[in-house]
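[job 4417] fold queue: 2 targets
>>> target A
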Amino acid sequence: MRFSKILHVIPRSKVHNTFSLTRQNMSGFQAKVKAHDALDEASATGHFVRTAAGFREIISPSHAVFQPAANRYHLYVSYACPWANRCLAMLYLKGLEDVIGVTVVHPTWQKTKPANPDDKHCGWAFFDSANDQPLTTSTGHGSFAPSGCSPDPNAVHAKFIRDLYEASKDVLGKYSVPVLWDKETNQIVNNESSEIVRMFNSLDVFGGFVKGPFAHHDFYPVALRPAIDEVNQWVYESINDGVYKCGFARSQLAYDQAITDLYAGLDRVEAILAKQRYLVADGAEGRSVFTEADIRLFMTLVRFDEVYVVYFKCNVRPVASYPHIRQYMRDIYQTHRVAEIVNMEHIKTHYYTAHPLLNAYGIIPRGPNVV
């Protein structure tokens, strides 16, 4: 099978920043971009509008630069981030942890240009859990020293995720995780989680290195791709991104629309799971199949009652009250190595301490401890 059929790749004309705009022909380039984060992504009507990922290269045997290899690529994540965690889940499910390195950042955003008082941007920071002193919020509240974080081990020796983007000649100014990094050319390959997930899944990319019980399980099988894509689309719009549309809404209208769509999406999921184990069914075999769609949804669901109910005002109904969704979450949580990446300390610390505009003093709620 040709690799081009493995992934739905966005045309280069629609991509903000590809390899052709980075190392090959941008010598001396200095991007003049305004650093921003998700709280800045609001429309004139107060709706949250997410900025698309900017680095969209796909590792493949035929790529001119980014070809599959062991110990060449590195994944930067936060345990708090659902988008990054879907990548980490796929990496573990496919047994690639000895082939692709992983670094976890601190969950509490910090000022990324601390020496420049005019640059107000706050974002992901590297942290040595074994040696560094606890960090505060960007406004000086609290004391947070979670386990599991480590310094940047690669050539850039970044202090912040922003440093990786600037080393890669970023032109968008949003410094998000996940980041898939190439240690050979010292630049970002891809920061779009859905594409990283599919690269890790594809046997045409890292198939020579996979191991474990899901090594040869295809989470995006050809026959089911139309169904998976359809589920991904409405789950993303109503649930994955829907919780952020609720939490970052800047008008009552925007919030009311988002919360309505969110719970319509959850009701739709509950109805599907009342009939089958997973989101997508294989009609030929008469059973549902564990696919990337389940990984993508799970990462939002597992954060829902602990964070989104309170922090993002998604309080119409907790997911624990949906019997089929709750059983589905338990099922996936117990799947090979998934529980290892559900780090509620990081999750709650991030959401409740990273945005002073929403939680000025960085107070972290104690409950409900449903996970």
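>>> target B
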Amino acid sequence: MGCLSSKGDDEKEDSGNRKRPKVVKWSYDLVEHKKWSKPEKEEFKQRFGGSTDKMLEFLNTKGLVGETKVFLPGELDGYDITFEDCTDCDFYVLDITSQIQADNCTGCRFFCSPCSGSAFFRDCKNCSIAVACAQLRMRDCSSCRMMIFVPRQLTIESSKKTEVACWNVKYFGLAVQFARAQLSVYENGWYHAHDFSTNSMPTTLPSSTTLQDIMEGHDRPWKPLDQVAASQSPEDPSMDPIVPLVTGDRSNQTCFVLFSHGLNEAASKVSAHFSVCYYSSLVVLSLYVVSTLK
């Protein structure tokens, strides 16, 4: 999936009095952005007075009980982060990372902004997780609810009672984070799962599922993002989502949607093969592919 767009005025004439067509671009990127890379290790370490031990203590969270920990935008700058042996904690990772790893956590809630690499959850129980990443793996987990963005599929091994929903989060700066993590918002395979152990496939939650729905079910309230970080605002929930809401591949039907002006004549030519529905200046063409077609 991607975005086809054109820019510029109507067709113009070049120096030879020939008409030049509009520039049409197919893109997998949501925003134009400069190439970004995380700072060098020595540069990053200077934020901790040059101490490797302090840097590792910041990046590796271990043994917390009943605490809330917030990583603000700009604090991680693409570095790996880990959580281990934590119970009933809330973690807000509001900056991009290159890898996320959580081991043996119980009753915890994780909100993770885009990760350019892999997110691993192992031996986690009764956790609520919202994560956008390039690769997502679970092993020996149970009773976890997840709101995910992953380009291809969720990989599961020896896990049970897993529930998954499509990423449905919006806040100012999310588009830039997706771009820096080199994730295309148009490629979300959250509903695809591969179970190595064939123990139990995850249950897909309705498309109306919200972040609040995922984070409920614990004995403490969930604080919205705008209440834990100054970079978030109360207006964020009213923003348009940048990640298309994908309902999942639940049938053998596919849909081709085309938005254009003045396409009535073209649409009439293919009406024998397409189901055509007009709405305002939009023409929606729905192609139903049946299993008999090869």
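[job 4417] complete. Note on B: The longest strand covers residues 109-122.
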